Every structure is written in C-alpha cells, then in structure tokens.
TrEMBL record:
Name this polypeptide is given: Peptidase
Molecular functions per Gene Ontology: 3'-tRNA processing endoribonuclease activity
InterPro entries linked to this entry: RibonucZ/Hydroxyglut_hydro
Classification via SUPFAM superfamilies: Metallo-hydrolase/oxidoreductase
Domain of life: Bacteria
Length: 314
C-alpha cells in the first residue's frame, strides 16, 4: 500500500513524501523545508503535488529541482491556478548557460477548476512555457489515480487524494486446478470484463466467467493530503465528497483550539475542527500535520490530544 513519510522536522515547514510499493518512484506533496528528505529520494520523485504557493509550502522547490536537474527525466508538477507562472519565474531566476535542453523536462498541470487542467511543458535552458493541451483529469499513472478538491484558504489550496489502483488476487484455496499461466489470463479477462474469453486449464476449455469466482477484487488504498484550509462548511462539503472513507489522511492543523481566533483570521484550521471533519469523513486513520512554528512540543501534544478526541469521539 501507499506509504507517506513526513520529511519535515517539528518547527520546519511541511513536505510529505509518498512511496509506492514495489516501485522506486515517489510522489512529493509540498516543498517546505524538509531536513529528512534525502537526495536519492528527491531523484526518485516522478511527480510533485503543490497545495498552494505560500512560502512555507514552496520555498524548498529550488532545493528539489537542484537535485533533479541532470536526471534527463520528465517530472510532473501539479498545482493551483498560476502555478506555471510561479515555477517559470523561479526557474528563470538562475543562470543556465551551461545546461542543455535534455537535462530535465517539467510538465506542469495547472488546476484551473475541477474540470479544467492546463498542461504546460517547460525545459532548459530558456525555460519558456509551452501550453500543450487542456484536459479534464489531473493525474493517472500505472500505480495511482489522483483526485483533488479545491479548498478555500483565501487562495486556492488543493487537497489531493491518491487512489492506488484496484488489484485482483487469486483464491488459491478455492481452486482444485493446478496453477499455471491460465491464472494471469483469467485475471486479465476479469479486469477487461471479457466474460466469454476461453481459458484452457489442463486440456479443458472454460469460459472466463465460470472461473471468476476464483478471483477477488481488492480495492486500492486511498491516501489523502489536505493542506491549509479555512475551517468552514464550504470546504467541509468538498472534503467529504473526495475524502470520504479514505484509508489514511494527513490534514493541516495549524492552531490549537485555544488559538482558534487566529485560525479564523488566517483562513486556517485548528485541532478539534480538523479531527471532527476527519471523523465525519469516516476515514480509517488521520494524522494532524503542519503546526504553527511558534508552538512548543507541549503545544503540539495539546493539538494532537484535541484532534484525536474529536476524531474518535462517539
Ligand atoms: Zn497557506
Ligand atoms: Zn501553510
């Protein structure tokens, strides 16, 4: 299953790395300071997901591309409205006279609305943006589909849901046949819904649908990352639509309950509000992240206690 690791120390800004099982590829959520992120991990990042470009979420973007330049890879960057222009300005602020055009390619996916994603390419040494197309979905590769919600934080803040693809497993105990290559043929027929496909086992031909009872569909793991958002109903409706029944969600919990007036003033969330919305979403596990830097360890404990009380309350 997908695994997330918080790469920022307490008092640092926020950066979360998502590792894919049986793959050396990673996804990175936000580019805050991240002392725990290694160069090797950065070089394995195939896609970066930016919630919004407040400095605490974007300041380490330079540190990330510093280690990606030269890889020759294509890296996808998803982010809110205008992300393409902000990345262009960051890249253009350096001198690139010794770099050729094949050292890296960024594909930027600008989330304009739920149905409108603009795809741009940008590559060295000139880093001029090229609009490729507009599409109605954000991200899909061989491992995951990524769904999202556009939350309000006095600016768009994108919350991402990584949905691992469903897998199909073979129920060994329910079968009296000898194992063979027919199992993978059957799985493929099941995935493509080819009920009439002929499957031969030990010299006898069966229709695929007669054997489907030997397979089980396992729903893919759902991992969410919800960054800065105002603790208000409009956001909660969107969060419930996208993150309901997720397996694990990391959610911004910038303030203690005692400081909720700052949360309201700064369009942020606070401990019990984040815990409560996670409970309403019926997520299996939830983790509060991204605390105000002025807080001490004991403030952090206070946040976690109030968060889990609201999350687990009957
Ligand atoms: Zn913010
Ligand atoms: Zn923030």
């Amino acid at each position: 299953m997908l695994q997330a690791e918080i790469k920022s120390l307490f008092k640092e800004d926020i950066s979360i790395l998502i590792k894919i099982p049986n793959s050396s590829k990673h996804y990175l959520c936000d580019c805050g300071e991240a002392s725990l992120l290694t160069v090797k991990e950065v070089q394995s990042v195939s896609a970066v997901f930016i919630s919004h470009t407040h400095i605490d979420h974007f300041s380490n973007f330079d540190g990330i591309f510093r280690h990606q330049i030269g890889s020759g890879e294509k890296v996808v960057i998803c982010g809110p409205k205008n992300i393409h222009q902000q990345i262009e300005s960051r890249l253009k602020s350096y001198t690139w006279n010794l770099i050729d055009e094949n050292t890296i390619e960024y594909e930027i996916r600008e989330i304009v609305s739920e149905e409108e994603i603009n795809i741009y390419k940008i590559r060295p040494p000139l880093w001029n943006l090229e609009l490729i197309k507009t599409q109605d979905f954000l991200f899909e590769d061989e491992y995951v589909n990524v769904d999202f919600a556009i939350l309000d934080h006095k600016t768009h803040s994108i919350a991402y849901l990584f949905k691992e693809k469903d897998s199909v497993s073979f129920n060994e105990n329910g079968s009296e046949f000898k194992k063979g290559k027919w199992i993978s043929e059957l799985k493929s027929a099941f995935e493509k819904n080819e009920e009439g496909k002929q499957i031969e086992i030990e010299g006898i031909v069966y229709e695929a649908s007669e054997l489907f009872h030997l397979l089980t569909r396992n729903e893919g793991y759902k991992l969410g990352v919800i960054m800065d958002h105002a603790a208000e109903e409009g956001n909660y409706e969107k969060i419930k639509t996208v993150f309901g029944n997720a397996d694990m969600v990391y959610i911004e919990t910038f303030y203690k309950d005692e400081d909720r007036e700052f949360a309201i003033m700064n369009h942020h969330s606070f401990a019990s509000a984040s815990g409560k919305i996670m409970k309403e979403c019926k997520v299996k596990e939830a983790v509060p992240v991204h605390f105000s830097r002025r807080y001490t360890e004991s403030d952090r404990l206070e946040i976690e206690t109030a968060f889990y009380k609201a999350f687990r309350e009957d």
